[in-house]
Amino acid sequence: MKLDYLLDITEESDSIAHTPSLASQQLPFYIHNFGHYCARSRYYTEREGLDNYLLIYTVSGSGFISYRDREYALRSGQVFFIDCNEYHFYKTGNTGNWNIKWVHFNGTSCKYYFNMINEDSLNVITLSNFKEFERFLDEIPGVIHKSDIHTDVKLSMLMTNVLTELAVNRLNPTDSKGFAQQTVLVEKAINFMQAHYAENTNIRDIVKHLHVSEFYFMHLFKRHTGVGAYEYLTNFKINKSKLLLNETDLTIYDIAYKVGFNNVNNYIRDFKKLVGTTPLKYRNYWIK
How far is CA 102 from the centre of its chain? Predict the structure, then answer.
């Protein structure tokens, strides 16, 4: 592990440590430390190889972070979320003060949220609803201080709320006109999928309808929805098939073709992958 730092913070700064139980480390999220720092001009941290995640929210002032070979200036209302195993360096920005709230945490859902929020680099998020985000964040120290049998479960719930707010706000358009056009394009794609799913619609059909390249569409759809276009379409078909399994006596073969699968084996494979059981077992056991 690599660590170099200068803790140049005011006396009003505070942090609190927490040790989750072994059982709690199976939760979606568990917290190691929480802090609220009023950092001065010389504050910095350079680190690599720490097996947890870090979220830093800039309350006021300015900061700077270097992560994955890119540099980012940070301002009030912005949040970043990094994997501390990877090299990172952050410090107070040009204003000479950096008022931040931060959490070191881990959990079984961290990687999923990290990949969804950051994609391939680092997504510094500007919050549109910072009051709700701050409310969840500010509840954390009180829950830690109370330290009862429900502490770790409550902390996991709060981190779920915090990161869900980030996921909702992860798209921070710098070009509002361009962003609006992208949103319309994604909505058109979803409407097309929902209208034509039973026709064995594929990605080529969608991009032909939208008059865009497949590469551009796949990237755009994943960025706006958090899931791939093929995954979204398959999920939609499976959900439609569940209704038919529940409400009709159609055979598995007929249902597969009715929801747009041209091969019943592909339908059974995808259904089992997403639902955890076969369509027949779902019909016989799950819906009684």
Answer: 18
